[in-house]
Amino acid sequence: MSKRGNNEGSIYSMADGRWRSAIWLGWKVNPTGKTVPNRKVFTGRTRKEVQDKLTAALRDQQLGVPVIQQKQTTGQFLRWWFEQVARQTVRPKTLEFYDFVLNRHLVPGLGHIPLAKLTPQHVLSFVNETGHRVSERTGRPLSPRSVKHFHRTLCTALNAAVKYGCVARNVAALVDPPAAPRSKIAFFTVDQARTFLDFAKDNRLFALYATVLSLGLRLGEGLGISWNDANLETGRFNVCQSLQRIDEKLYPGKGGLQLVEPKGGYSHRVVTLPAVAVAALRRHQARQEEEKAIAGTGWKGNPWNLVFTSQVGTPLDERAVLRRFQSLLAAAGLPRLRLHDLRHSAVAILIAQGVHPKAISELLGHSSVAFTMQVYGHIMEETKRETADKMDEALNPVATTVATKRLGERLN
Known about the structure:
- This protein is 50% helix and 11% strand.
- With 412 residues, the protein is mainly alpha-helical.
- It folds into 3 domains: 54 residues, no CATH class; 101 residues, Tyrosine recombinase, N-terminal domain (DNA polymerase, domain 1, Orthogonal Bundle), CATH 1.10.150; 153 residues, Intergrase catalytic core (hpI Integrase, Chain A), CATH 1.10.443.
- A 3-stranded antiparallel sheet has the order 1-2-3, with helices on one face. Strands 4-5-8 form a 3-stranded antiparallel sheet, with no helix packed on it.
- Strand 2 and strand 3 form a beta hairpin.
- The chain is elongated.
């Protein structure tokens, strides 16, 4: 072994001709439970290469920047982040989405790369290549919107990597996601909403449709309504839970339909029920009591005291409700919509009635008026255009008459 140079630390040559250096990081507990020294080792072909790595690490250590271990792969970190960070902080549907993105895209595409060596070039190549990948579900290339979601998930995970000292910077944040055109929001016009409610008034789930539409609820929030939270005397409704189907694979022993917290902190809100919703809920309550009496011992019970259940008292699944809803639309001769589009329809109707954006934002449970404007601003612009057109239509005959009169005066 050759002698170390001054101020080089432990730099030495190995039998195969390479050079090695180490930096002290403190102590760690090994798998056997024994406390052992924790060192970061650098290896290179020349003394200078190792010296440069050591100098950079010592500088980072003095500046408080974490000295990164090289062995952990990006895939290993992503799985750790999923279990130790995401699982503890996000809602079940979000965790299900993360599970899909990690297993289908991020880990296969980037998982083999050491986390400390992941670069913006790696991320950019992944984004570009994923944009040309064919979706197994549709048979078409993945949309820019989907790729943007994958990129955002990677950014979220690498933010945690920076926070916990696994990397010094978030390389995904340095890469621009693909430009994704804003998806067009579908909704009922005021006339279509009236047509739908009139056609569906005798349907068993009319009260659900009327309540979701009049309050702009998410479907899960509507299906999660409990009689304990809906006061038909005062017309007040406490939005405090949502019904969702939980993946048994991700939550062993807790799968199936479960009540969860509503989406986002601002989604927990108290709203006032419009008269149309109160009347529909009163009729539905009477119908539910009749169904309970008819079912007799076959009534499965309703431990959550849910407003909307099957005819034997079990919670309703979103997919089954969606099928019934779309069959109703087809029968009514109305455009095909998702149930979530009733929420968008509520916004469009309120905008058309001149309701202030702040009131709409509070009704929807959004975090800010700015977010509401970001999502629905184009509907507001369309409404302004329609208003101007109607004003022009109303005043145009007057304007034409005045112009004709002035022309006649000039000619005379």
